[in-house]
Amino acid sequence: MTAIRVPPALAALVLSRNAAVDATLAEVLPHVGVAVRPLVFELLATRGRGRSLATVVGRFFQYDADLQESVVQHVNGLFGGVRLAIESPEFAARAGAIEIVVRSDCGPLVYLLADALRSTCHRTRQLAANGLRLMTDRLFRRLEAEPPATEIEAVESLYNYLAEALKKAVRRWEIHLQPQVLEAALWMGSRIETAIRRKLQDPRTKIARKLNDLISDASNPRLAGFTVQALAMPELRGVAGRAIAQAQDEAFIKALLARDWLLVDADIEQGCRRIPPGRWLHEGVDEILRLEDDLGVRAVRLLAMTGGSHDRKIAQYRALLGADREHLHRAVVWVLVQDKSEDATELLRMVAARSGIGGSLVAKRELRRRSADLRERGMATGGAALPEVGIRHEFEEYWECFDKDNTESVSLRDKVRKDTGALLVCIRAKLGSSSAFERTRALQMGNVLGVCKALEEQIYRLAHDPDAQVRSQAVALLRNLPGSTARRLLRQAVDDPDERVQANAIEALDLLDVTDREKETKPKLESLDNRVRANAVKSLLRLDVYEAGDVLLDMLEDSSPANRLSALWVIEKLGLDAVLARLEVLGTNDPDNRVRQRAKQILQRLAASAEAGDRAAGPQATTAGGRA
Asked: 416: which residues sit within 8 A by CB, 6+ positions away?
């Protein structure tokens, strides 16, 4: 004690061991000089008499900022005082004790905040609840900032203390009814899961209502873990499923996906079926494409586990396969491997047919396995389940590599052509498949092999197929069937709900050179679809319909690069050298690189064609029609 330097007036008190002296020091602490106060406080903290320390704690809000900071820094010497103060009949003392625990982040004293939740004083319960939430918030901020190695042990210790205090808060819910402390408890995820489950099983509790409220409003990423875990709790899984489906906050969505390891739990996996269709996961691919690669893969796995329409999920898989993301292609393929439906098999065939797509080798192996299983079932049932039994093996091989331009494909194509009868049996079987992909590919194959005339009945029928892709392909092939039936179907198809079908119908009427096609085609000059408009312009320009020229010029100046590219396609197809000046402007000044390159290519081709024509015409061509 003699080492502590204090003014002479306090020397006698400092050297005294009398409890009354400690009480006196505690009383005068806020009133002594600024230079002396830290020394007096240090003396009190060192001597450690509980009631004197309780006085120091209870007067906390009477101190200036410097002395308050000194009290917080010496919290380890104040344990007895804090315990006594938090049980004091005076609100100021309780408030001071709570404030010291919260400011100091003192883990060993956190339990006192949980105890304060039982206070009969509403303000005390509220202060304790706010304090627990604030301390938990600060802790998570430290964790999210990835603390240095030197702080990890202290952070883990505080985490454990807070988890235990929050468990008590959950068990005492009916006493305090403080939603902010319940929210902080949910941030702890698995650490408080058991306490939540036990509380939910108590028939007297109404905690489920507040938990549902917190989950339904979930946007804080810290709630993501418990939201996933809630899928396993019957009282919460409905609202948890809706919260996941309707999530809009990007950080919350990422946090959900980062906890996909929880999905290995059988109860949570089952609860995933309560996740209804939602915008970010089930409608379009933009939200998933914005995710980092790893999170995108996790989103695909979650999509497979959710509830809702299987057709909707298949449509989403198809859209994901159409995106230029190999990691997503592979994720979708592995999901499809687990899906034994015909729709999944169709998508696997689509992937297998596109050698450049991620997962194509996996898709091929899975298709071979499924084919082997199907053959075994067919043999067991006398072949009734296998429409391809008896069809030449070469056809199936050609079917698998149909769209590949290589030696193997050409060799197999020559083989199947040798037996037209067997070939037609095979193609007709595929045209009658329940798989839209197989029907589409069979139509394409019939065109490549030149057997459309022999398949005209099937093509006519498929021009009315419910699947737009099949319908579009069938309508395109009607150009190979010049009869009146084909023309009637093409006129009808110009007004098909699907733009792909419309575009193919307009093009087929043009290729068949149907002279009275203007009536059906002209209204399509106003179509919003660039391909439909371009095909209509091309067809009508060949009929010398002047409005088509105006539309072409409008498309060249349209703000959409897709419209400008479509206009360039028309110019190239018809060899319109009257717009060379416009092409030069596009090739030099267009803001879109694709448009500039395309315009330059067409300029070169038109120029080369003009030079060849001039050479062929000789000297007589010098006064031939000029070009604009």
From this structure: 392, 394, 395, 398, 422, 423, 426, 449
Residue 138 has pLDDT above 90, yes or no: yes
C-alpha 112: how far from chain center: 43
Check if the beta carbon of residue 120 is closer than 8 Å to that of residue 150: no
Residue 523 backbone phi and psi in degrees, to 5: -60, -20
Residue, of 246 and 74, whose pLDDT is higher: 246
State how far the Cα of 534 lies from the Cα of 513, in Å rounded to an integer: 17
Residue 304 in tokens = 């497979």
DSSP assignment letter at 476? H
Retrieve residue 549's tokens: 């020229």
DSSP state of 76: G
What region does 383 belong to: left with phi over 0, alpha with psi -120 to 50, or beta? left
DSSP state of 263: G
Average pLDDT for residues 490-500, to the nearest whole number? 90
Q: What is the pLDDT of residues 105-125, one digit of tens each?
A: 999 999 999 999 999 999 999
- Let me know: does 570 contact 507? Beta carbons within 8 Å: no
229 neighbors 268 (Cβ within 8 angstroms): yes
**Do 580 and 603 touch, CB atoms closer than 8 A?**
yes
Neighbours of 536 (CB within 10 A): 32
Residues in the chain: 628
Amino acid at 627: R
Structure confidence at residue 34 (pLDDT): 67
What tokens were used for 159? Answer: 């985490």
- Is residue 7 classed as helix, strand or coil in its secondary structure? coil
How many C-beta atoms surround the C-beta of residue 39 within 10 A? 17
Buried b (16+ CB within 10 A) or exposed e, 223-237: bbbbbbbbbbbebbb
